[in-house]
């Protein structure tokens, strides 16, 4: 039996190696696409175009302007005499936000009195608008706090001492990179077994295999092992890309490989199930993508799961990608181990085992 399974696995690899297009797509998906999506999809807002209306024109107002553009969040794209002039820039899309400094700004800040600035944000992109607004509020508060401490004692009150763990810079690049690695492995683990099994049906070779001594369970195992091996191996170049992008590795690599195997088996179970309910390669690919997109959106990589309706939060637990991302981010960024991540591994097993059982039942009937 082991010899027959080894022969089937070797056949799958030989077919894969004879397909240069497939090899290129696997390499591209796990390297260049991971890198490009990490840099393009990152949700850290930078280089926003800021317009300024300085009605005060004092050293303090100029210091406030320098505070706003001191980081890479905003770049000054113009100074305007009135809000009407700046409005034209917002309409054209050459400005993302406008800050108007009142005439008595410097005097009120120097006297330690409360003051305010006008802020107009382009809300056509809600995500960019909310982040721009938050950045301006944060920078204004920091500027006011520094000036107040320099001129007079701060008023009594509760001041939070905030510490950020696991990602002190509050950049989203690390999370996006790890999420893309998990997504690449997930897509391969779903599509490869689905395409491999259906190709046998479509080409008629499955009928020829049935008259050989190969049994149903041997064929089933022979179709499962190669996608798992290929998907596991394809993670290695993705990890090299993550290393180039300076993603930290805080956890155990051995734990990552073990839990990643559980994750890939859960994804392969979806691909195998798709293969048992479809007859052509086109059907298999369309069905795979039909399921991939909802699972992607429910993974938490696009929208925080906590922001979803309650019934979708429950549905997200059925997405292997949701648990795969939790595992990879927990290991790499938090240094979590099996004690913290075993619930996700258990959830992946709860997803994969029933799908494998149902797939085997359908495959056995078709055999």
Topology summary:
Elements: H1 2-17, H2 20-30, H3 32-41, E1 48-54, H4 59-68, E2 74-79, H5 83-92, E3 97-101, H6 105-110, E4 118-121, H7 126-151, H8 173-203, H9 205-210, H10 216-244, H11 253-277, H12 281-297, H13 310-316, H14 320-334, H15 338-366
Parallel strand pairs: 1-2, 1-3
Antiparallel strand pairs: 3-4
Helix pairs in contact: 1-10, 3-8, 8-10, 8-11, 8-12, 8-14, 10-11, 11-14, 11-15, 14-15
Short description:
The protein is mainly alpha-helical and 367 residues long. The chain has helices at residues 2-17, 20-30, 32-41, 59-68, 83-92, 105-110, 126-151, 173-203, 205-210, 216-244, 253-277, 281-297, 310-316, 320-334, 338-366; strands at 48-54, 74-79, 97-101, 118-121.
Description:
By secondary structure, the chain is mostly helical. It has 15 helices and four strands. Helix 4 links the parallel strand 1 and strand 2. Helix 8 packs antiparallel against helix 10, helix 8 runs parallel beside helix 11 and helix 10 packs across helix 11. 33% of the residues are buried.
Q: Assign a percent range to the helix content.
A: 55-70%
DSSP E strands, number: 4
Order of helices and strands, N to C? HHHEHEHEHEHHHHHHHHH
**Overall average residue pLDDT:** 83
Strand order of the largest sheet: 2-1-3-4
Largest sheet: 4 strands, mixed
Per DSSP, what share of the residues sits in E-state strands of 2 or more residues? 5-15%
- Please state the structural category: mainly alpha
CA radius of gyration is: 28 Å
Low-confidence stretches: 152-160
Number of helices: 15
Apparent shape: elongated
Termini separation: 17 Å
Q: What count of domains describes the coordinates?
A: 2
């Amino acid at each position: 039996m082991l010899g027959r399974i080894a022969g089937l696995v070797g056949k799958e690899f030989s077919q894969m190696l004879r397909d240069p297009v497939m090899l290129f797509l696997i390499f591209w998906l796990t390297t260049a696409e991971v890198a490009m999506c990490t840099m393009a999809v990152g949700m850290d807002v930078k280089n926003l175009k800021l317009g300024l209306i300085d009605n005060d024109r004092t050293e303090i107002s100029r210091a406030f302007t320098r505070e706003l553009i001191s980081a890479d969040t905003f770049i000054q794209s113009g100074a305007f005499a009135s809000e009407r002039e700046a409005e034209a820039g917002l309409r054209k899309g050459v400005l993302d936000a406008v800050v108007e400094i009142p005439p008595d700004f410097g005097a009120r800040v120097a006297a330690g009195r409360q003051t305010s600035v006008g802020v107009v944000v382009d809300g056509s992109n809600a995500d960019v608008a909310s982040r721009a607004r938050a950045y301006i509020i944060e920078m204004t508060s920091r500027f006011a706090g520094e000036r107040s401490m320099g001129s007079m004692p701060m008023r009594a009150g509760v001041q939070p001492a905030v510490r950020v763990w696991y990602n002190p810079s509050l950049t989203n690049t690390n999370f996006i990179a790890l999420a893309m690695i998990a997504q690449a492995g997930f897509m391969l683990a779903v599509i490869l077994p689905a395409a491999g099994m259906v190709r046998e049906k479509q080409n008629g070779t499955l009928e020829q295999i049935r008259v050989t001594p190969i049994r149903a369970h041997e064929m089933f195992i022979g179709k499962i092992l190669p996608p798992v091996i290929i998907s596991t191996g394809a993670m290695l170049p993705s990890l090299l890309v993550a290393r180039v992008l300076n993603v930290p590795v805080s956890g155990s690599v051995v734990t990552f490989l073990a839990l990643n195997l559980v994750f890939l088996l859960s994804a392969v179970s979806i691909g195998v199930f798709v293969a048992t309910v479809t007859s052509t390669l086109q059907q298999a690919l369309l069905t795979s993508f039909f399921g991939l997109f909802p699972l992607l959106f429910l993974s938490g990589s696009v929208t925080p799961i906590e922001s979803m309706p309650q019934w979708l939060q429950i549905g997200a637990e059925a997405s292997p990608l949701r648990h795969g991302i939790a595992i990879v981010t927990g290991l790499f960024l938090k240094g979590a181990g099996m004690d913290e991540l075993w619930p996700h591994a258990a959830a992946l097993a709860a997803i994969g085992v029933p799908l494998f059982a149902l797939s085997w039942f359908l495959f056995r009937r078709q055999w």
